[in-house]
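Recap from last week: sequence in, structure out.
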Amino acid sequence: MLPTQKRLKKDDFDLLKKTRNKTCSSKSFSLKIYDTGFNPSRFAVIIPASVYKKAVQRNKVKRRFKSVMQKHTKEFKNGFAVVVYPKKTEPESVFNKIEEELMVVFKKAGVLTE
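Predicted structure tokens:
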């Protein structure tokens, strides 16, 4: 689980509406990256019920994405807010596949330190 200081809160989403974003996507998910100046960077994973009907599936996918972000937490630059929107894929996606794909998109977006 992500530490509390690295999670986006409800109040932060109001700020994000006023901020320009950069969008990157892959086969399994899309990212919206906001340059907010947060220190440290904050993250959220949003999965609407239209993607996965059952809450168990939504929570499982959220846990997998948050686990990857927690594992690589020291590699992220400060000053960003990142929102992940997973797409409908096979519910039993391999964790390593999610991790590789997410890290490639983070590098492409310029959120990771070199």
